[in-house]
Each structure stands twice: as structure tokens, then as C-alpha cells.
Write a structure and sequence with these properties.
The complex is a heterodimer. Chain A is an all-alpha fold. Chain A has one domain. Chain A contains 10 helices and no strands. Chain A is globular and about 60 Å long. By secondary structure, chain B is mainly alpha-helical. Chain B has one domain. Chain B is elongated, with a radius of gyration of 24 Å. The chains are: A mainly alpha, B mainly alpha. Chains A and B meet through α3, α7 and α9 of A and α2, α3, α5 and α12 of B.
Chain lengths: 254, 240
């Protein structure tokens, strides 16, 4: 009951702070920019337009979702709204679960809005999988942002951690390739340590560079099992981050 | 005092200290940078670009080729293609192909843009680049080598090279259209460049290889330029 109410008001807050309108504005700007790119290309014009739009839309969606969560919870801390809420008969776990559900609903709306132009430009089977993967990616980033803002309590360290995690998760495969085949110094201790560190990180972090892949839209849609793997990875990381956020939130003195 | 329309919570313009206004005017009056042709820098490393693109190699490859395509038109200056360092051009195109191997754009640039200069060495370098890349994926890249075969025969006047390319298509590109695999015939025939290019374009259209309207327009314009050049018996008008 509490979870539903908090979820509904979190989604309502997103609508009233113009998150869907911002997503629509982003869509318009990116679509205009992608049309410009299309005009520059001599051939493969659709491929260029889709390639640019998908890559930029994904980055914008992550930026919007993450910043929205960080700013929203930060405001609740500063305005003492959270203190008032917890003075009522609301368990802390219900607050976190309700917030997470509301933010995820907002993320789903962002993913759907930003995927709209792709339904016209790319095959429907690929767009469906791309949109689903983007929604899961946003859900993961939202869970991470929620965990960070509750743990760090300050906007700057929380945003810094989310950005670092996201950038690392998206470039880890390329780093692994570079680390596996260095031009020189393969046997040095420093390389062995770096290689071990990169390999260790790759076991811990989600391989986000394989999620929401632009190649699905311009080359060929992947097998449904690829999406299943993303769903499974997403579930594991979201659960882990939500539990970590609950753990930290219960330890906080409010 | 007048206020800026629509911003009722803003103070009047007189609230801004005059010194800030003077500094703003000086900043606006600073001379703009002078146009100067810059040499094409060395191609970035594909592995580094892959990491920097955050797992978006296709978008990175596209930005790379668009940058290269527009490099000859730097602000205020137009650099002829023949003044570019072609070993660097080939390295840029190679990097783009490594990032997005399914794209034919770098091969189109090599055969249709950079291969059109009047310098035979540079034409040959671009043809060799296309040939080398063709070997990596013959069934996807044969059409660009077909363009090079025609170029080798008519521009470089090197029938042996043209036949080598045509033979490579017949031998390696098993999924190429039948007419393309029999290119040796019209390489050996005494056919003009426009006629050869028409056969190639017609073949590509008939087999549905060209679906992009921009590419069709681009190739048709090139064909018309070739036709006019042949009629006036002058070298074809290209950017060199």
C-alpha cells in the first residue's frame, strides 16, 4: 500500500517537474541533429542517421534518468520532506521500494519516448529489443543513483561515482582487449597487475557496451537470448543495488 | 526602467556594472581566427577510439569518416584532395573500417572521392587500399573493387591491374551478382569509361545493390560528369 502510494507520487513528481517534456525536447533536438548527419552522408544515409540518433539518445536518457534521481532525493533530504515522511507510519524499506518503482516507471517513459523515431527508421524487431534493453539499462542506473545518493548524501560525490561506474562499464570490453594485447612489456609486473585488475573488474561490472547496441538497429536484430541475458544481468545488479541502498538507508540516523 | 520582456524576476539592464559591459564589448570585438590550411593529422588508433566511444564503435566510425570527408573544407579554405597525405587518408579509412566493418562508406570514399584525383599514384594507392580491404570480406565489398577495376582501365590505363581486380571478384566474391563476376568481359572489350560505368551502375541498380537515394544521385551525377567530359574530350571535372 505504502509502496504503491510512494511510487505514484514519485511518478507524479516526474511529470510535474517536466521529465516527459524534457524527453520530448531531447527527442526533437536529437532528431534534428540526426537529420543533419543524414544530409552530410553521401551513402548509407539511414545507417548514419540511426547510428547517431541511437548513440546520442542512449547517452541522453542515462544522463536524464540519473540526474533526475540524484536531484529528487537530494531535494527530499534538504527540504526535510523525508524526515516528515518517516515520522509517519512508513517503513524505510517501503520508502526505498516505492521510490525505486516510481523512478523505474519514469525511466520506462523516457526509454519509450526516445525510441519513437527509431520505429520509423529501423526494423521493428530490432527497435523492440533496443528499447527493452534501454529500459533495463536505465533501471540499473536508477538503482545505482539511488544507492549513491543515499550512501554519499551529497550530489557531487554521488554523481561522480555514477558517472565513473557507467563510463567504466561501457568501456571495459575495449580496455580488456587493449590489456590482453599490449604492444610491448607483456611480461612486466605492472602489466600483469593491470591485466589482473581489468579482468577482475570485468567479472564484477555489467558489460554495458553489449547492452542497447546500435549494431542491432543498423546490422541485424540479435537473437532473443541476448535480451534474456541482459534481463538476467539487470535483475541481479538492480537487486544487489536496491538491497545495498536499503542496507545503508536503515543505518542512517534520521 | 525597461525590463526584459518575459523575465519579470530580472533586474533592469542598468543593474549590470558598466565595467562588465565594457569587457563584454571587448570580448566581442576580438579578431576572429585567420583561416589556415592544416595538414591531416595521423589517424587515431582503433582500439583507443573503441574505448573512448564508450562501446559505440559504429557512431565513432561515422564521426570519423564525416570528419575526414569535411577535412578538405576547413573554415574559409578549400584544400584539393591531391594535397592530402594519402597514406594518412588510407590510415583514417582503415581505422573507420576496423570500427565498423559492415559499413561500405570508407570504401566508397576511397573509390569515389579520393580515387578521383588526377594523380595516378594516389589513384593507385586508393585502388590498392580497396583491394586490400576487399580480401577481408569479398562478398560485402566487391562493388567498390568493381569501381576500381573500371578506374584502373580508363584512368590508370592499366589493363592488367583492371583484370586483376575483375579476377579477384570472380574468384573470391561467390555471392556477387553474375554480371559482376563476369566483369572481365567488359574490361577486355573496347568500351569507353562512361559506357563501362553505365554497365556497372545499371548492374548495381538491377540487382538491388543500391537502395540509398543519396548514393544513386551521387553516382548518377558522376556519370553525367563523365559523359560531358568524354563529349568535350577533356579530362573529367573533379576536385583536383
Amino acid at each position: 500500500m505504502h509502496i504503491n502510494t510512494i511510487c505514484r507520487y514519485t511518478a507524479l513528481e516526474a511529470i510535474r517537474t517536466r521529465v516527459p517534456a524534457t524527453a520530448l525536447l531531447t527527442l526533437a533536438v536529437l532528431l534534428g541533429a540526426s537529420l543533419f548527419i543524414r544530409e552530410l552522408a553521401v551513402t548509407e544515409t539511414s545507417r548514419f542517421q540511426i547510428g547517431f540518433y541511437a548513440a546520442a539518445a542512449r547517452l541522453c536518457a542515462v544522463f536524464m534518468a540519473s540526474l533526475y534521481v540524484l536531484a529528487s532525493i537530494s531535494r527530499e533530504f534538504n527540504d526535510k520532506g523525508l524526515d516528515t515522511l518517516l515520522a509517519l507510519d512508513v517503513p524505510r524499506s517501503h520508502y526505498i521500494c516505492g521510490k525505486l518503482a516510481g523512478f523505474m516507471l519514469t525511466a520506462l517513459i523516457i526509454a519509450i519516448v526516445l525510441s519513437l523515431p527509431l520505429w520509423v527508421l529501423a526494423p521493428a524487431s530490432a527497435v523492440w529489443m533496443w528499447t527493452a534493453s534501454l529500459a533495463i539499462e536505465l533501471a540499473l542506473i536508477i538503482a545505482l543513483s539511488l544507492f549513491c545518493i543515499i550512501t554519499f548524501n551529497q550530489l557531487l560525490p554521488a554523481a561522480g561515482f555514477v558517472a565513473a561506474f557507467y563510463l567504466l562499464a561501457r568501456s571495459l570490453t575495449a580496455m580488456r582487449l587493449m590489456s590482453a594485447a599490449p604492444v610491448a612489456g607483456q611480461d612486466t609486473l605492472s602489466h600483469q597487475v593491470t591485466h589482473g585488475l581489468v579482468e577482475g573488474l570485468s567479472y564484477l561490472m555489467p558489460a554495458l557496451d553489449r547492452w542497447t547496441d546500435t549494431a542491432w538497429l543498423v546490422n541485424a536484430a540479435p537473437e532473443p537470448t541476448a535480451l534474456l541475458a541482459i534481463v538476467m544481468q539487470g535483475l541481479i545488479y538492480i537487486t544487489l543495488l536496491a538491497v545495498a541502498a536499503l542496507f545503508d538507508f536503515h543505518r542512517r540516523s534520521l | 526602467m525597461p525590463k526584459l520582456a518575459g523575465f519579470t524576476d530580472e533586474r533592469t539592464l542598468h543593474a549590470v556594472p558598466p565595467a562588465i559591459g565594457v569587457l563584454l564589448a571587448i570580448a566581442l570585438a576580438l579578431p576572429s581566427p585567420t583561416a589556415r590550411a592544416e595538414a591531416l593529422p595521423p589517424a587515431p588508433d582503433a582500439a583507443v577510439l573503441r574505448a573512448a566511444s564508450l562501446g559505440e564503435p559504429i557512431a565513432a566510425a561515422q564521426m570519423l569518416v564525416l570528419y575526414l570527408q569535411s577535412f578538405d573544407n576547413q573554415p574559409g579554405i578549400s584544400i584539393p584532395f591531391r594535397d592530402l597525405d594519402y597514406s594518412r587518408v588510407a590510415a583514417w579509412l582503415d581505422t573507420a573500417l576496423r570500427l565498423d566493418p559492415r559499413s561500405g562508406y570508407p570504401l566508397m570514399m576511397a573509390s569515389q572521392l579520393y580515387g578521383q584525383v588526377s594523380d595516378p599514384d594516389k589513384q593507385r594507392a586508393m585502388c590498392e587500399f580497396v583491394h586490400a580491404q576487399f580480401s577481408a570480406a569479398p562478398n560485402d565489398r566487391w562493388r567498390w573493387l568493381a569501381h576500381c577495376a573500371i578506374m584502373a582501365k580508363h584512368r590508370l590505363k592499366d589493363q592488367a591491374l583492371a583484370l586483376r581486380y575483375a579476377t579477384a571478384i570472380a574468384r573470391d566474391a561467390g555471392q556477387a551478382s553474375g554480371w559482376a563476376r563476369q566483369m572481365r568481359i567488359f574490361i577486355l572489350e573496347d568500351m569507353g569509361e562512361t559506357a563501362s560505368a553505365k554497365v556497372l551502375l545499371g548492374g548495381l541498380l538491377a540487382t538491388g545493390e543500391i537502395t540509398d537515394s543519396s548514393e544513386l544521385r551521387f553516382l548518377t551525377e558522376r556519370l553525367q560528369t563523365l559523359g560531358i567530359a568524354e563529349k568535350t574530350a577533356e579530362p573529367p571535372k573533379s576536385r583536383h
